[in-house]
TrEMBL record, chains A, B, C, D:
InterPro entries, alphabetized: ADH-like_C, ADH-like_N, ADH_Zn_CS, GroES-like_sf, NAD(P)-bd_dom_sf, Zn_alcohol_dh
CDD domains hit by this protein: threonine_DH_like
Segments crossing the lipid bilayer: none
Protein's UniProt name: Alcohol dehydrogenase
Cofactor: Zn(2+)
Organism: Ktedonosporobacter rubrisoli
Length: 339, 339, 339, 339
């Protein structure tokens, strides 16, 4: 089959590899759509601490079942059979480490993920454990279904943040994740949501999606709302932005660190203020018990998928697609291996 | 001034009473709009355990400051002065009982409330403690502002329920409160919200406000969604409905008892099921730390006030207004004493 | 090997069965100690809706590894090897159902458990998935380690209840579970814990373990503390007791239904009171992310294991051991198959 | 009456001032015992941002009612009368600011407190609002009751931290507050609690109170427990300690910033780690809905008051008492104005 392969950091090609075949508890999937995200760029750049090379990337995907592993019961719980359409939660867990055993499977000490440590979906076919497959309702396209994974990260962020009805929000970063978080916040209890980004085209998208106000800096937002916001979310991963985001938290409010900063980045915070204003800071990492809710949110129309899905390219154009992402063009760029 | 007066249960009249004058820490308010709710009917019927007679009812109101009490600083925190427009949280708390001292002021052991135990706002003027007044932004009408109180009850309900992003909802009852809860749920994390009512005109309103599906019985809803809903809210107060609502809770899900059943009503539940499916049942009573959030939610456009505000009548038509409410016509009926 | 076998409801014998051998991802365990609990009586009586016959019961156990399955890595995460001492979480989860995928594995729709649907530990040997084994520290005896399972149920109860520092408690039922919950409450934030049981010998045990007060009825407890308790726990499973426990909840307080009532039992509650006093009712079922915490609590000395471990009998005396349990003699009765 | 007076920063004396008389809603209290804490040292040093001079300090106190204000009903809710013994929550709230109105009264924007902005209890008499008085049970001494205030701060810390049954703890700082937090943690769900302090005499006290292990640095604690602790509490207020405390948080764990760092102090944290390990950081400030729970915890024997109460000096020795505190001698030093 054809696949995008990163042989070593920096070296990407689209080439031919042997067709995969499903293990006993696996499904073989014909990939319908696979999104590109920052993680893919990190794997290519060689600054992912977890990636293994060579690797076929691609972890945001949906497709059609073309074969069932030998252990997969014909009357399986999900009614999956050849022809079924599915989305896949790409993170695998060991089930044995302390994190897995205490309900924090997303923090598993033995990280493995399709598209990061195992062959991913930037290919015609991919194998996946049936335990990670979700059957899709008929009215969801495979392109929409390939959005479930990023949405499920944003849902995990909302679960960690645990906002209350009426909270005011500030979201820093209006990339794909910021725009998803914006929608979840607007339909997640917010009375109003301000959005900050340096890229004004993205702010325009935020306004179209319902942002109450948009700004090119957090200082500007604070000028309008000097006592700050109940809930502040960083969706940039830029350390100085996170530091400013901290200043924008209202007394008794919360800061969600959703963006992925560099490992060596540091933020400088006032511990007096955390104490004196009872500020809470929380982190959110990938997907935890949030894939099904994300699927439901998309089906329920909470996410405006049409606004999120911009370019869709064939597998052979994978390098060009990466360039779109690097340049920040559009929102979610996807590869459709069947094109 | 003119006021509606309930002299004793069953006896209501619109008559003249002396103008009130504000105590030292009070404001005198010219009432702009005052909503009618079930509590007013209970006070009239004589089945409110807390009402004192004779009483001027009216606890859902907004108006204009016409005089300041002698202790009210001219540079008060809210910048209130003669002419300011305000909404008022009607529940007063003693500050000394165990509930007040442990953060449950809505459960104060010495219940007092404007319009229930103290003269209310079905009158030209009413006095209110400044501590209970909220300054209104210019773009909010007094009719909209008189909705803050019922919205703040619904917000308290959402805070008690504490739903998570992606939860599925079932709401029983599409009266004023059910329709408010519907809107808060749709913008409070829900992936979809089913609504049940026996009154199909109200179901039509629920659909217009975004309900995913509507039904005339909970059984019908369960036929479509046999494993139940993550969050079920009773907004009828009808005991058999609450019992059915319990059956509609999904494993690990929650039931919010928001409706006010009769004191002597009983529901029969399976304790095995509560254990075996880890069901949670919670109650929500009036307003707790939710008036400002409600104001913010209305200002932020989360509540469609136009759909909620139906009849508006002059004070002299108070009895006619009560009839509208009793007949379930429209949604929120208000008295505008200035008409 | 020798094992206790329930061939059909009511028919129990100790007999010889073939030695089990571990599957690829399993361990073979020589059982050191196995506790008896109400579930075993239910399996014997034939009123367990989930048991399969014939069955070797026994799900509260610890022992020594005597063989490793073919897939178990020699350098496994837990450093388990032949001779390692382990306790086992007996509940197996499917990993694919909606409950498993949303973090409620204890509510798995495909219930399977060692000692209930699969051969258990009332035998010389038992096989267990390595994913369910926990390595024991040297200072824990196998008898103490066989307590981890019931403690982990009680810990799940505390996690569901989520009490706050300073809460007052009432616990109904001073059997094994009530006495464990008493200890967890006393070291779980309680300012005081009252205990109710009809059996005064058990109340004496509760007092020795630190109960602030003990009573033979909930009414008596309420006579001393008329406004009720912040946290009330039913650990009897008796429907009329659960109803009374509800009356003992303070305004804004919580009721944990931990006891297992009969499937057809019903409790009659006032929905007005749940609303008006903002009462919360929660259920707690088995073990969720609580086995490791239970192990840690026992190692930390939070549980007085000496007070909990009463009779220890050889496997051949299994019937006699069941009688002790039925008669409510002592606290935890264990079988030591190696005796 | 005699009182300790701080006329200006640095200038303290014990002198005579006019006897206070209670306002309408106040009580006049004869002070029985008043503790000294770091706040008093800050007021004396002039580095309290909120103190007003001249000031009679003293906010941790209990005493006897000697007169009732004119509004105080003889049949008041607390049954307070001349001769009643009371403890007092010293923080006053405005009731009108956004924090007061959303349930965060401890973060009131108009800070006022007995002993900080209003005359305190380092005097023979002090006046207090009845709303802040708590009646004492007979078996509590006034010295013990003067501990309720610091305990209620620690209880607020535990409420903010919201630990779960079985959590492992590390507490940095074994001063009065660290030792109180230690006791609340040991009886607040902890399976084990490690304590770190540079002062080994204090570590000895921590061990006597039940600390599982003690260390003179956080690094040592991490050497024993390399994966860190579920709950880490800073009770030093020292910025470098808080930074290290952050490193001691286990994946998915929490850090409570309880110690009061200097306003200008900064800590440097890895935002990547907060994200990647889903770390939570929370602050806790003074008393919120925690005075009654603290009273209950002391009455319930959860706090070993005998170990906490060291020196007790007469009012005339206030300067000597301050020296004891500055030198870190003993634990809680109190002034008994009646000595
Ligand atoms: N927690 C999780 O589970 C999770 C999951 C997925 C992604 N993430 C992280 O979430 C973050 C956002 O992801 P994404 O896919 O949305 O990335 P993205 O498309 O690159 O969006 C980031 C946005 O932040 C803007 N930005 C950069 N510097 C800024 C500044 N100084 N002030 C304001 N805005 C600034 C960027 O503008 P320019 O484009 O002009 O630079 C861009 O619009 C990333 O760090 C990603 O790694 C986290
Ligand atoms: N918790 C709080 O703080 C709070 C605050 C305000 C109100 N409440 C309570 O909330 C409830 C709703 O208030 P509301 O103002 O919205 O009252 P409402 O206008 O009377 O609405 C109740 C709705 O439930 C419907 N209903 C009655 N029986 C039903 C049944 N068997 N099945 C389905 N629907 C049924 C009613 O239909 P019909 O009109 O045809 O009977 C009506 O549409 C009341 O109990 C009220 O007391 C609680
Ligand atoms: N939620 C979970 O995960 C979980 C886990 C394990 C067990 N459980 C359940 O927890 C409950 C307790 O288990 P256990 O092993 O401790 O059982 P147990 O030893 O039978 O203890 C129950 C205690 O309640 C007492 N009791 C019975 N009727 C009473 C009444 N009317 N008033 C006061 N006390 C009364 C019993 O006294 P007598 O002995 O005199 O009747 C007995 O001392 C059971 O229902 C069990 O099924 C739940
Ligand atoms: N959040 C609140 O509501 C609240 C309420 C009250 C107090 N506080 C704060 O809580 C903190 C503790 O109060 P406290 O009364 O217990 O103070 P304390 O008696 O001074 O105790 C602090 C302890 O930390 C030790 N320490 C100092 N530097 C250290 C280091 N590098 N490593 C380890 N230990 C170190 C001190 O040792 P040495 O004595 O040898 O320096 C002392 O034993 C203070 O910051 C106080 O302001 C907060
Ligand atoms: Zn793992
Ligand atoms: Zn009160
Ligand atoms: Zn399952
Ligand atoms: Zn305030």
């Amino acid at each position: 089959m054809r696949a995008a392969i990163i042989d070593t950091p920096g070296c990407i090609r689209v080439g031919s590899v042997p067709d995969p075949s499903p293990g006993p508890d696996e499904l073989l999937i014909r990939v319908g759509a696979c999104g590109i995200c920052g993680t893919d760029l990190h794997i290519l750049a060689g600054d992912s601490p977890v990636a293994r090379y060579p690797i076929i990337p691609g972890h945001e995907f949906a497709g059609e079942v073309v074969a069932l592993g030998s252990n997969v019961a014909l009357d399986n719980d999900l009614n999956l059979t050849v022809g079924s359409r599915v989305a896949i939660e790409p993170n695998l867990t060991c089930g044995q480490c302390e994190m897995c055993r205490t309900g924090h499977e997303n923090l598993c000490l033995h990280y493995r993920a399709i598209g990061v440590t195992l062959s991913g979906a930037m290919a015609e076919y991919v194998t996946v454990p049936i335990a990670k497959a979700y059957a899709l309702p008929d009215n969801l396209t495979l392109r929409e279904a390939a959005l479930i994974e990023p949405v499920s990260c944003a849902v995990r962020g909302m679960h960690s943040l645990n906002p209350r009805s009426g909270d005011t929000f500030l979201i820093a970063g209006a990339g794909t994740m910021g725009l998803l978080l914006l929608q979840l916040a607007l339909k997640g209890g917010a009375s109003r949501v301000a959005v900050v980004d340096v890229n004004t085209r993205r702010l325009a998208r935020a306004e179209n999606l319902g942002a109450s106000r948009t700004y090119t800096s957090i200082q500007q937002a604070l000028a309008d709302e000097p006592s700050g916001f109940n809930c502040v979310i960083d969706a940039t991963g830029v350390a100085p932005v996170i530091e400013q985001a901290f200043t924008a938290v209202k007394r008794s409010g919360k800061l969600l660190i959703f963006g992925v900063a560099a490992d060596e980045a540091r933020i400088s915070l006032s511990p007096f203020r955390i104490y004196n204003e009872e500020i809470t800071i929380v982190g959110s990492m990938a997907v935890l018990a949030s894939f099904q809710p994300a699927l439901d949110l998309i089906c329920g129309g909470v996410i405006d998928t049409q606004s999120m899905l911009t370019a869709a390219l064939p597998l052979e154009d994978f390098t060009r697609a990466l360039d779109l992402v690097k340049r920040g063009e559009g929102v979610k760029t996807q590869i459709l291996p069947g094109l």
